[in-house]
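<instruction>
Derive structure tokens from the sequence
<data>
Labelled lines for chain and fold
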Amino acid sequence: MNGFYAEGIHVETAILPEGWRDRLVGWDLLSSAPGEPHFLEPHDLAVSKLAAGREKDKTFVNALIVNGMLDVKTLHERNELISNEHQFLKDRSRSHLNNIGRASGSQT
């Protein structure tokens, strides 16, 4: 079977970087008509996943980076757009991104 599964969540469930609404990605899906689904831009999603701090989310983000689907510099920039109310999570995510950058030889 081909396809995908997407489950919506309430926006208050996730920690998202400032401006995320302006970066939403639309996708025409006939099966969703008359709805118009919108999805987080991949870097915003990844930063939210890192803020959650679950091992499965870090593994997911690492795989996207290794496969060239995410840019570490952009992830750093988006991480800084998370509210200072969540400073601990920002710091934890920054540390993870720094480790990825060192492992891959990227400049951060």
In short: The longest strand covers residues 25-26. Residues 46 and 61 are 6 Å apart (CA to CA). Helices lie at 42-52, 55-66, 72-79, 87-104.
